[in-house]
Structure formats: structure tokens, C-alpha cells
């Protein structure tokens, strides 16, 4: 399992990440590494998932995926994955920071017949003082277009319209129109096994439905600059995030809590 040795980024990677707000990286994890972690991650998702409504009775957001967070607290094997120095170092180098700490992890499993993931920006939910936050999106299988790979609007992290929209039908409709009007290119390439992507907190992204007979299994880890401070929440979701993912931290604090360990530092 190779999750701690450095991955060599190309010389243009950080600039591409800064320009586009995301980057896709090939072959970061090998097949054996994914095979070593996927069964345990999937087992914990099935064990901890609380969404059991029939698909027809779910909201658009609920149809998008099963969502289970902080799996690292429930499995030593998953903890090894989430604490990967290889993945954390890439995040630090792309963001141009000395180190990164964990915000939280999140499994996103798009079931067979699962619907779209609407256009949204993650940082709407995060009470953080700067934009030095990003998510690594790690598919645990090959992810063809029919399975709903992540799609990005390149350069949209500098587009301020829509930052006040929670994920849902309204964000999908409004951003679909606004992003198209602005001419942002949309990247919707499939992921080969071992390919992963990183996207910034304000980068608008979405995913199509899963039209295959196989669940789309994805593990994500959210990283923040190790020196990041908490900001005053600007909506109810940020209030919930502050108490849930950074317990005991207050606006102005560096969230050095038991849930937010430093995962990499130069």
C-alpha cells in the first residue's frame, strides 16, 4: 500500500490548480492500494449510513449519494488512508502552504440509479477565513461518464455569483445558466482507476447520475491550511459545521482540535 511516499507533481501543476481551481492527477494510487482500502471503506459506509428512504421518496440532494463523514474515527484502516502523507502533501503543494490539517473526510457513494449532484461550491458550508481549502476526490473504481464522475467549471473559483446557494435544485438551475453565460469550460472526463482530483473550496462542480449497475464509490478528504483560522459563520450550515467538525474552536482560532490534526508539514 503506497499512501505515504511523495507523488511528484509536474512543474505546472500548482499554476494549473490556481488558474482552474481544480486539477486531475493520473495514477496517484495503484490498483493494489485501492483494493486494500476499498472493502473497508465500503463496509463502514454501509454500516454507518442512515439514509434508507426509497429513491423515489428522496430529495434531489438525497438522491445524489450516500454521505458518511469522518470514517477515520470508526476504522484504523480507514484512518491510515485519511492520514495519507502522500495525499496531504499534494494538497499542501497545490495550495502553496507549509502544511495542511484535516477538516473532515467524507464518503460519497452514488447508488445505482442515483441522481445528479447539483452544481455547488463546498466553501458555502465552511466557516473558514481564507480560500486555502481543498478536497481530494478519490474514486475507488474506474469511473466512466455513465457513472457520474465529478465535473468542474474551470476558473469558477473566482466567480462570486452563487456562493450563497446551498446544494439543491436551485443551485443546479441557477448555476447551470450563470456558468454557461460566463463561458466557463466544463471538464467532465472519466477517471481511470488510480486517477484522483483536487478542487478548491470555491470551485463550482457537479456530477451526473449513475446509470450503471454498480455503485459509484468515492472517498474524499478535505484539507485546510494548517494555519487557517475559523471565521464567524455566515449561515446556519456554517454554524453546524463549526460545532460538528471543529468542536471547541471559535472564530479567530486555529482549529487545533482532536478532529483536525495536521496531516502534513514541510
Quick overview:
The protein is of the alpha+beta class and 266 residues long. 27% of the residues lie in helices and 22% in strands.
Summarize the amount of helix as a percent range. Answer: 25-40%
Discrete helix count: 7
Mean pLDDT: 97
- C-alpha geometry: globular
Order of helices and strands: HEHHEHHEEEEHEEEEHE
Q: What structural category arises from helix and sheet content?
A: alpha+beta
CATH architecture: Sandwich
- Tell me the name of the CATH homologous superfamily: q2cbj1_9rhob like domain
Spans where pLDDT lies below 50 across 5 or more residues: none
**What is the CATH class?**
Mainly Beta
CATH level-3 fold name: Jelly Rolls
**Main sheet, how many strands, which sense, barrel?**
7 strands, antiparallel
Total number of domains: 1
Region (Disordered): 246-266
InterPro entries: Phytyl_CoA_dOase-like
Keywords: Dioxygenase, Oxidoreductase
GO molecular function: 2-oxoglutarate-dependent dioxygenase activity; iron ion binding
